[in-house]
């Protein structure tokens, strides 16, 4: 198999620096470029695949830059809401082919950890069977976005599964909540964000019925937990032209 040339955008960040090390250690991958916020991306040093791990404000511009140049992109940065995704789909439809002649592939992966992918899959499977559900995500206090991309994705999957099953809205008698104590509401699902020194990335999905509760919890204790997913995505992205949301689609875990 031909060597894959990889560039990391956001290379000095917490995730980016870990991704640089993972790419350097991975067989069949060669790191050709590492970019920070002050760097000109240019042709990304001839990379076949860019790994994008920056901030929500910069990510769409970086991804557009890669797509325009026919470079496949693995995006771990969060903040990809529906309008951003729709704009990217439009750009991909009109994009030039990649250097290998296929359509450009872009993966938006809200979470690369295998356990987190399974947590989301289990949550979607459980969703039709419970009257109540809420999501609690817990992260390190340096995280700039809330709710987490994982929580937004989980809420989306649960909401879709409930709608498909014809479930009514989650019961909630709250009529007075001047300080927003009930958290954010994403597609009808309550999401609560905790920021706490000492944490990395954690999430609980709480399901309730009369007399019973199911809790699905995932913990990333180290950013190393994301790296097998990053490397698997780099290896697979060229084989998936167009836009894919969720690494589970590459791994058959959906
Ligand atoms: N999908 C997943 O599994 C995971 C996703 N994430 C997401 O990844 C993203 C990064 O997280 P994290 O590493 O913790 O954040 P950091 O703040 O540690 O790193 C962000 C990096 O992005 C760089 N940056 C900012 N703007 C640009 C730009 N325009 N071009 C290039 N680089 C830029 C910053 O560089 P500088 O310091 O020079 O400003 C910084 O090094 C977040 O959105 C986070 O939610 C995090 C963990 C797992
Ligand atoms: O910022 C983080 O740290 C993380 N971000 C992603 C998210 O917002 O879901 C993935 C993981 O939770 C870590």
UniProtKB/TrEMBL annotation:
- Where is it mostly found? cytoplasm
Location of region: Disordered: 164-184
Substrates-to-products reaction catalysed: (S)-2,3,4,5-tetrahydrodipicolinate + NAD(+) + H2O = (2S,4S)-4-hydroxy-2,3,4,5-tetrahydrodipicolinate + NADH + H(+); (S)-2,3,4,5-tetrahydrodipicolinate + NADP(+) + H2O = (2S,4S)-4-hydroxy-2,3,4,5-tetrahydrodipicolinate + NADPH + H(+)
Which InterPro entries does the entry link to? DapB_C (IPR022663), DapB_N (IPR000846), DapB_N_CS (IPR022664), DHDPR_bac (IPR023940), NAD(P)-bd_dom_sf (IPR036291)
Give binding positions for NAD(+): 10-15, 76-78, 109-112
Q: In which pathway does it act?
A: Amino-acid biosynthesis; L-lysine biosynthesis via DAP pathway; (S)-tetrahydrodipicolinate from L-aspartate: step 4/4
- Where do the annotations place (S)-2,3,4,5-tetrahydrodipicolinate binding? 140, 149-150
- This protein's name: 4-hydroxy-tetrahydrodipicolinate reductase
Q: Which organism encodes this protein? A: Intrasporangium calvum
Species lineage:
Bacteria, Bacillati, Actinomycetota, Actinomycetes, Micrococcales
